[in-house]
Amino acid sequence: xxxxxxxxxxxxxxxxxxxxxxxxxxxxxxxxxxxxxxxxxxxxxxxxxxxxxxxxxxxxxxxxxxxxxxxxxxxxxxxxxxxxxxxxxxxxxxxxxxxxxxxxxxxxxxxxxxxxxxxxxxxxxxxxxxxxxxxxxxxxxxxxxxxxxxxxxxxxxxxxxxxxxxxxxxxxxxxxxxxxxxxxxxxxxxxxxxxxxxxxxxxxxxxxxxxxxxxx
Length: 216
Hints:
By secondary structure, the chain is an alpha/beta fold. The chain is about 35% helix and about 25% strand. It has helices at about 10-20, 35-40, 55-60, 75-90, 100-110, 120-130, 160-165, 165-170, 205-215, and strands at about 5, 25-30, 45-50, 70, 95-100, 115, 140, 145-150, 175-180, 185, 200-205. A six-stranded parallel beta sheet has the order 3-2-1-4-5-6, with helices on both faces. A hairpin with a 4-residue loop joins strand 7 and strand 8 (about 145-150). InterPro entries: NAD(P)-bd_dom_sf (IPR036291), RCK_C (IPR006037), RCK_C_sf (IPR036721), RCK_N (IPR003148), Trk_Ktr_HKT_K-transport (IPR050721). GO terms for molecular function: monoatomic cation transmembrane transporter activity. This is Ktr system potassium uptake protein A.
């Protein structure tokens, strides 16, 4: 369980707060809009109305006591930048800041953000990969080069085992799980035999995964 200070209760902030709570974390949510705070108060551990660009208010929050600080402000970049800088000045351990543009990300990183998230950009990229290719059912980016994909088992693999196909050495991918009829089989053994109508959860470099999706 982590203690999280989340600033900004717009759509992104509310969704993130809800998921953080669902995962068992404690969340103190802050917003300058009373209506947003009232709407979220039953959803989070605690919620306060306040201006996160005000030094005295931020100091009163005890920023250094939180494991994670999230700057989820999306409609006012100046406020987001000032809040990020204040959090770091007040001793925040880790600041995750939302950005809508690359130039915003650069300024946020220079002013104390430890990590940047692009909600719209990341979702758009994920959907483009998922729906732009008939052989990719889902996709989670890990780095600029590596990702986790859900793909159908290639026809040429059906009836053969993982070790027979020498998957890792020949194709440079790792099979994390297989899925059939909604049931997941995590970390299949080397003697696992591929079946019809199942999908594979694999991890690898984009280039290597693309090559596998083109197999017959």
